[in-house]
Design goal:
Radius of gyration: 12 Å
CATH topology: Rossmann fold
Strand order of the largest sheet: 3-2-1-4-5
Distance between the termini: 38 Å
């Protein structure tokens, strides 16, 4: 049973204008959320679920790193992981418990 999920929101959410949909996912699951550095501003920072900007081992605030590192399930929405956004791919993600949703505009 999943007790401590987290949603990571990334820059593709902006590209696809899916901010409201991402917020609905977070609220439906009732879980914490973080944004990637290039996704800053895509989730309301005054929302009770918001935990910060996740950049691997240097997430701001430190609570952000803990939220991701202690989750038992992770939903990644529109994040493009790079050495920049993860500070050298030093992430605390448990990939076996992660679902990654990439967003692309279909013509």
């Amino acid at each position: 049973m999943i007790k401590n999920p987290v949603v990571i929101v990334g820059s593709q959410v902006r590209t696809e204008k899916a901010e409201k949909a991402a917020k609905c996912v977070v609220e439906a699951f009732g879980c914490r959320t973080v944004v990637t550095s290039d996704g800053k501003g895509l989730f309301p920072e005054d929302h009770p679920a918001f935990a910060g900007v996740y950049m691997g081992q240097v997430g701001i605030p430190m609570e952000c790193r803990e939220v991701v590192g202690t989750c038992d399930a992770c939903i990644v929405i529109g994040a493009v992981f790079s050495d920049y956004s993860t500070t050298g791919f030093k992430m605390d993600l448990k990939w076996q418990n992660t679902v990654q949703v990439n967003l692309f505009l279909l013509f």
